[in-house]
Amino acid sequence: MRIGNLDGRLVILTGSGALDVERASGGRFGSDPQAVYRRWAEFTAWAAAADHADAQPFDAGLLGAPAPAPRQAFGIGLNYRDHAAESGLAVPDQLSVFTKFPSCITGPYGEVELPPGGHTDWEVELVAVIGPEAWHVAEADGWSHIAGLCAGQDISERILQMGSKPPQFSMGKSFPGFGPTGPWLVTRDEFTDPDDLELGCAINGEDVQKSRTSNLIVSVPQLVATSRASASCGSASSPCLTGDRGRSDQEGAAGRERAERPGQPQQRPQPGRDVGDPGQADRIRRPAAVVKHHPDAGQQ
Question: pTM here?
Fold first, then answer.
């Protein structure tokens, strides 16, 4: 099942279009996309039998963040084996957890204004949204607390982030629009193997990041079981960015980001580096990111 936020309204996305949940349920569920996570088991039971006859074609440009107002948003740094090896860094002994303020979370389309005089960086991420409340959860039960997955970008302004001692990760990662997510939430049952997903990023049609979630040092269910973040995610749905600098490639189908400055030639960003060095670019355009299965399972 694919859950979306269409112009601020909760929808189920089907092959024939978008089904407005409030209307289709006769008001049993409201229009607020965030509120559904507090009633996740009840909602999914209803959705499994819902009549999709009233699904309507929709404008994808109106899609917003699938979980637009989480109580908390956590990220895990250096959580891909290939990234650690590429960086010449040892695999960390403990989780490196940072936060992104929920106010930075936005949808898959639009523009992100870059802070002036900064050094803005981007990294494609897997986003896992908590559904049923998670507290003292066994690893074997970790996936049962995930409502679904989507793609995202962890945008960071590195000068502010690294300018103080200790670094201020949350400040540099939480400017308005610095947490694009979407284009929709895909429930776990849609994936052949949710622990082996292809994730990537392309800029102007050029693939620049590539990896699989099977390369995660700490898997999604392990994060739910071991991360302190899971203790307070609760049922209000918290996007948890499960990797840092997740070099990846959805065979060209992942989040595409472009930096432009009117009247000047485009500057091509480098993977995991700047899209906003001083004098280069002042905004990012962000077409949708897409989560994709293992190749034998098709695209999500």
Answer: 0.79
Q: Residue 135 is part of which domain span? A: 74-297
Alpha-carbon distance of 254 to 176, in angstroms, equals 22
Cβ-based neighbour number of residue 43 at 10 Å:
24
Instruction: Give me the number of domains the chain comprises.
Output: 2
Secondary structure class of 60 (helix, strand, coil): helix
Residues 183 and 60 sit within 8 Å (Cβ to Cβ): yes
Name residues whose C-beta falls within 8 Å of residue 216's C-beta, 6 or more positions apart in sequence: 79, 80, 81, 242, 243
Q: With bands split at pLDDT 50, 70 and 90, how would you rate the model's confidence at 48?
A: very high
Pairing of strands 105-106, 179-186: parallel
Residues 104 and 168 in one domain: yes
Tokens read off for 91: 């695999």
CA atoms of 225 and 244, how far apart (whole Å): 19
